[in-house]
Design a protein that fits this description.
It is built from no helices and 13 strands.
Amino acid sequence: MTKLLELYRCEICNNLVEIDHEGMGTLVCCGQDMKLLVEHEATSENAHFAHVETVENNDGSKIITVKINHGMTDEHHIEFIEAISKDKKYTKKKFLKAGETPEMVIKCNCSEGFYIRLYCNKDGGWLTKTEI
C-alpha cells in the first residue's frame, strides 16, 4: 500500500513518482515494481555532506527562506525542494535546474513546524524537520 507523499523511483529509467492519493497494489514502470525512496535524514552529524538546509524566518514573519548549501552542476544538483506541513495537508515544491540557486521562499503560518524535502540527482532524497 502506498502512503501520502511517498516517493517511488524506477531503477531502469529513473522516473520519480510522488503519491497524492494512497492506494493498494504496487507501482510499476518499465515492467518492474518501482522502489520506495527512503530519504536520508539531515542531522548535525552529516551536515558536512552538504544536503542540509538553512531556514530563515525574518523577524518572526510568515515569510520563510530555505537555502541549500549544494553545488548545482549538470552532473550533480538538487532537482527539487519541497516544504511539507507536519500534518501533510500543505506542500510547496520548487523544481530546479543545474546552474540555479538552490533556494525557495514560502509564506506560511508554521507554528507546528514543517519538513523540508529535497532530491539530489546523485545522492537521492533528504529530509529535514524544522521547528519555526
